[in-house]
Amino acid sequence: MGSTAHHGAEGVGRRDLIKRSAALGLIATPGMGLLSACASSGGDGQDKAEQGKKTARNPLGVNDTAGLEFVLFDGGFGKEYAEDAVKIYERDFPKAEVKFAATQKIQSTLQPRFNQGTPPDLIDNSGAEQMDMGVLVGKNQLADLTALLDAPSYDDPDKKVRDTLRPGIVEMGQFDGDPVWILYYAYTVYGVWYSQKALDSLDAAYPETWDDMLALCAKAKKKGIAGWTYAGKYPYYIPFSLYPMIAKVGGREVLDAIDNLEPNAWRHPAVKACFEAYYELYKKGYILRGTPGLDHIQSQTAWAKGKALFLPNGSWVENESANVIPSDFGLAVSAPSGLDGSDKLPFGTIWACGGEPFIVPAKAKNAEGGMEQLRIMLSEASSKNFTAKVKSLTAFNGGTSGITLTPGLKSGVAALEKAGDNVVNPRMQDWYVQLQKEKIGVSGLGEMMAGRLTPAEAIKKIQSFADEAAKDSSIKHYKHQ
């Protein structure tokens, strides 16, 4: 899966391409694949559990004898944090039988059940087989979680659940209007991950401009170290650093236009400049040899072993690669390098947002139970448990006091503090899953970074994919409000 000819000169004067345009993000879900949902409106379905009596201790009116079925994506965060939260549900509702399962086969396991109208009560819809959120919302397959958000929080009856959440979490779960269809439980920082020890060995600081990035990669190459690697089989990891770079260079409105499927959004000068900057990594031989054939685990392992300096990823990488990251690695994350001083937003502009999307199906037998399980997970104790065990923040705005933060988590918090208001949140990955993963990621960016497309060819191809999606009447379309 190596390189081919790069078809002539690309990358003419980055500075000449940027005149000034517009940017936006935080922590989320490890997406690892290509399948999307083809949800139908569902079959006859199952009988709903009778609602229980609403009390101060049971504000959602959960039927205390109704069973609860919870299916979790078994990915980078593992399943122990969810199993611990299930134990609290079982303690609170001892008469209820809880069926908990963890799988990586979300779509192939659960899509048939959606079609039959017999879905579980709570689902962590993540991973390679993530069901397409836009499709599920568009086909009325999900329950509105407003009742959960307006319920008293698990810890403080005087505070609503929505008032305990990090900024942007509620808005992420909205697609059109007020209903909230998804609760993103993890809070993910996306960016460029690296070893501070490796940079120290090169007597280098993290590069803030692209010229400095290329100079550092050249220095590393002389010592037999690649500048970058990435999940070559899942190249939609590349946007974790590329998208916020586009926002930094051209402004957040460039990403908004891309999300909105606006005509020529991908032809913006900031997009062209950033594509050409990344393509230079390929042209100059700064990508770890064989990267296009590596999956996420293989690329993370090679990086952890010091074969490459930089890795675009999300904050789950600290937990997912814990068994291969050396104790003295000095794990750190940075916002992407910019082009130069003409960038619209300052260095530190980063993508961060809710991740690990939890949903309650509209035809769930025990929807109140599914929401109650989420209410438990959004307590301070469950949030602290998650952070301590999986090295990631949650949607709960707090939950870190008394916890010794791991290097990656500490670096992520520092990156957020540095970003301030310059946090962007591209919606492509949850509004249009198939477009983002299969087309933009694999067929566009993956081909470009492997040297099989020039930046101009990649942009033309990706813009055509976006135009097709915009014209497709079978797809529900969303726009930034």
Automatic annotation (TrEMBL):
Keywords of this entry? Signal, Transport
An example Pfam family from this entry, by short name, is SBP_bac_1
Entry keyword Phosphoprotein = no
Q: Which domain of life is it from?
A: Bacteria
User: Per its UniProt record, what PROSITE patterns does this chain match?
Assistant: TAT
Its main localization is: other
SUPFAM superfamilies membership: Periplasmic binding protein-like II (SSF53850)
Where, subcellularly, is it found? Cell envelope
InterPro entries in UniProt: Bact_solute-bd_prot1, Chitin_NgcE, SBP, TAT_signal
- Quick one: where's region Disordered? 39-60
Family assignment from sequence similarity: Belongs to the bacterial solute-binding protein 1 family.
Q: What is this protein's name?
A: N-acetylglucosamine/diacetylchitobiose ABC transporter substrate-binding protein
Organism of provenance: Streptomyces nogalater
The record's gene field reads ngcE
